[in-house]
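re the bet — no i am not wrong, look at it urself. input seq straight from the record:
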Amino acid sequence: MAINITRKEDIMLKFCDGYAKTEVLKDAYPLVRTYKCLLKAGYTVEPEIYSDKIQVFSFTSGTGYICGKKKAYNIDELSFYIPDFDREKFSFYAAEDMEITLWVVDMLESDKAAYEDTHMLLPSFKRFSECEPYDQSCKGPNTRSWSVIHSGNLARVLMGIVCAEGEGTIEKGHPSVAQYNYALEGADFELTVDGETINTKEGDWSYVPAGLDHSLVSEKGKKVFYIWFEHMVAEVKPS
């Protein structure tokens, strides 16, 4: 089967001091690990930090805030946070139960060199309402897309959001990137990978290997709404 999917109901969350972190789509791709996390209301967590791994947190439901050394950020809508490696500790506080998705990306020496050559300023916090819209020929006429991480800004990582009703995205296989998808609130669409189709709903994770044709399309009256996270399979050389 071409489709690698983890259903929301199959993710087992084991809590410690109000926080749960469970790996999903394990071993789907060698350089990226993905996690579903939940922080219960009233609790604070100080996530693990790394010197050599990129972390991208998405806050997909609930409210709270992020507290860094120099700045705090309110979480009151779908939001994204990229810490500055191990240069600054940070913590999350949940005012309501807060669902979090996490991508942890290993960096090879070439990734570190490319990052040092050009990169976005970290830490980075961005709300959905602050993301930049973009268009693409593989999307339906009423399918909307927003960029979270632009190509070349964070080594080999790219990220965005897609939303549509009654249509979506139909893509020829892109051999340059492996793609993860996380279905957001109200999502109910058909995911097709290499000719195989499966229904996808809110909270489901999926993975599309580089090079396979794929589509994410909803029927009339239903919703496509997902985060896509891509990793370039070839190493990037600094300019």
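see?? The chain has a mean pLDDT of 95. told u. also The radius of gyration is 17 Å. so pay up
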